[in-house]
Every structure is written in structure tokens, then in C-alpha cells.
Amino acid sequence: MYIAGKCHCGNIGFRLDWPGDAAEIAARACDCSFCTKHGGVWTSNPQAKLIVTIDDAQLVSRYAFGTQTATFHVCARCGAVPLVTSEIDGGVYAVVNVNTFEKLDPARLRKAAVTFEGEDPASRLARRKRNWIADVRFARAGPE
Ligand SMILES: [Zn+2]
Questions:
Q1: What dihedral do alpha carbons 39, 40, 43, 49 form, nearest 10°?
Q2: Using CB atoms within 10 A of its CB, is residue 9 exposed (0-12), middle (13-18) or buried (19+)?
Q3: Which helix (H) or strand (E) holds 102?
Q4: Residues with CB under 5 A from ligand 1 (ion)
Q5: H or E segment and range at residue 129
Q6: What does the pLDDT profile of the chain (144 residues) look like in tens digits?
């Protein structure tokens, strides 16, 4: 099934092609300092495909901290954070913020708190490679 999402103003949008009917979607409320401040709740599926469309790339702020291995794509216009990417071994992996989903029945979300505190960088990248969306494409929105 397709799940659409976007930031509040629509500058950063995405279409997630989720395998199967997605009766249940695991949503992880990360307890890192950034996600705590932003209320980020993330999901991914290693078999999903993600297409990200950006209207105005100038209005996307890329933010990294700590181990600098994850990039938060923050809309500079409205402040929402629809996705995080991580470059691992030449590939781009991603998770998306369930709070930026459009028209998805919230009853499908199985929210749980997670902590990755104390995880060493190598295990962190290996975990992302296993669990994050591995097919990530960025497209320019609109006909221009
Ligand atoms: Zn926005």
C-alpha cells in the first residue's frame, strides 16, 4: 500500500510504498535529545520504497549531531521533520516520521518507546542497514 506524508507546509513530501496492507505499523518514539525536542516518532520497513519530493531545496535544513551518521531533513519553512537519512556503505537509508503521514488511520500505528543510548557506532549502522528503508529516491517536485 502507499502511504503519503509531508511536512506541514508541503515543501517536503514523500510517498512510501509499503509491502502488504500495513495492518500494523511499528512506530518508534526515539528518546535521543533531538527526537525528544521534536516529538519524532519513526517507522521503517527494509522492504519499503521511499520517494521524497522537495519543492524548494533551499528550504530544507539538514541537521546532524552526535555521531554525525544520521541527517534530519528539517523543513526550514514550517519546522516539521518528515525523514531522517543515513549513508551506509554508499547507500542511502531512511526512516520517516509517522506524525507527518497523511490520511493514515492512527489505529494502525503500534507506538513504542525505544532507546539507542549506549549503542556503539558500528552496531548503530548495522541496525539501520537491517531495519531502515533501503530504497530511497529524491525527486524534484513540480514540472519546472
Ligand atoms: Zn514545511
A1: 140
A2: middle
A3: strand 101-102
A4: 7, 9, 11, 75, 77-78
A5: helix 121-131
A6: 999 999 999 999 999 999 988 888 999 998 888 999 988 999 999 999 999 999 999 999 999 998 889 999 999 999 999 999 999 999 999 999 999 999 888 899 998 888 888 889 899 999 999 999 999 999 876 554
Q: Return d(Cα 75, Cα 129) in angstroms, integer.
A: 25
Whole-number Å distance, alpha carbon 122 to ligand 1 midpoint, is 33
Instruction: For residue 11, report the distance from its CA to the centre of ligand 1, in Å.
Output: 5
Length in residues, the chain: 144
